[in-house]
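fyi for ur records
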Amino acid sequence: MKHKKPWWKQPGIQIGAVLVAFIVIGGIIGGIFLTQTPPEQPIAFPHNRHVGIGASCLYCHAGATLGPSAGLPGIEKCWGCHQQVQKQSPELTKLAGYVERNEPIPWVPVAIQPEFVRFKHSPHVNAGLQCSACHGDLAKMTVAEAQKGQNMGWCLQCHKSSAPEQWTKLSDCATCHY
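which gave:
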């Protein structure tokens, strides 16, 4: 009498399991790739050049001192400087096109937190934290890149080391999740 193979040794089950594993692993790799690749911007903004000449992050991202979003600069902010600076480049030509059309620059945010996180820039800026602590050394970046490893553990470690006297408040879930 022929023995029937256990269900997990059936060829159809094994092939199905391998396919499911490939799909799951592909999804994980794709998700990591998509979240770690800087998005294409409408204008390749050279952060390194602007930081290099001494431009403050808060000049272009003034919302960081006021509330949750640092904000992204509009055509008025960019053109306010660049109508004075007569350098020609393909990127400045793109900027001039947005100005001529009176069209907002469709910047793509880079440092995005999950919806369940309620991050506010203002307490961090007001505590004297440098933008580079979270956003990396933009003097070395052309286009801004999301920083790897920013997660809850990373934030808690920073809170614990930079403000131990406020650890109880800063480690309370409701501080960032509400």
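Residues 47-72+107-176 form one domain. thats all i got for now
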